[in-house]
Amino acid sequence: MIETAGLTKRYGARRGIESVDISVGEGEVFGFLGPNGAGKTTTIRCLLGFLRPSAGRAEIFGLDCWLQAAQAHRRLSFLPSEPGYLGELTSAEQLGHLAALRALPPDAWRQLAERLELDPTVRIRQLSRGNRQKIGVVAAFMGDAPLLIMDEPTTGLDPLMQREFLALVAEAKAAGRTVFLSSHNLTEVERSCDRVAIIRDARIVQVSPVRELVDSHWRSINLVLAEPLPAGTFELPNVRVISATARDIHVMVLGDVNPILDRIAGLDVRDIAITTPDIEDIFLRFYDAADPAPGAAAGEPSR
Fold this sequence. Notes:
The chain is of the alpha/beta class. It is 29% helix and 29% strand. It has 10 helices and 15 strands. The strands form 3 sheets. It has a 6-stranded mixed beta sheet with strand order 7-8-9-4-10-11, with helices on both faces. Strands 1, 2, 3, 5 and 6 form a 5-stranded antiparallel beta sheet that branches. Helix 3 (91-101) runs parallel beside helix 5 (129-141). The protein is globular, with a radius of gyration of 22 Å.
């Protein structure tokens, strides 16, 4: 569905992207991760034919993204990171206009708007940032375009609507549609994507199944116990006890959490918090990979 080879875009002295190679299969949900300025949006703009590459190639549906952009656009749906709308229109009017442009029924948007709790009668200029984002999400998912390209699609959405967005992605995948989305949100990517590419300093540094990416990093578990922790409770592979003071315990776990959860099940736990690594932690691993701490594996917590 998407194929790039040596895709490069330069802005004179400014950095764009360098030799980006990605391949996205039909029916796949593909995550594109990177910090601000890494090259995510530039890559997407090249894929959509909004920017002409300085070198390399990019194809969607086997079509050249620059020379045959119009043909590719007929079969895809796009949500930009900062969508712009006509403020004097209501959500219904704007979405109806977008539906007409794509030859969809006038009310193709209605069911999706109801799921996202978007009031179609309010003028867009009166909507909050999150509600304006809902318009973009509805516009992206309505219809049956085989490819959805979305740039930071959940920006501004509250947790409940983020969950609904993930449900929409799962339904799109089940229908055989392909989803390409950029994100800063590791949880969003972990729950929705099959594979992920990480871009750093304009270059792809890793492409892997999302499970492998998450399992290569440490999770933090904080416990408050009713009784002091019995000695040796957490002597398990890939488990590090960071601190244990009276009834407050902090441990780090690499990969599978089930063995430690089995141990925790036998304790009288008053409170527990399990934290997945932040996306910044993932990026930090790649930025620091060339100069790891002596004797430390990449991604291992300090003791």
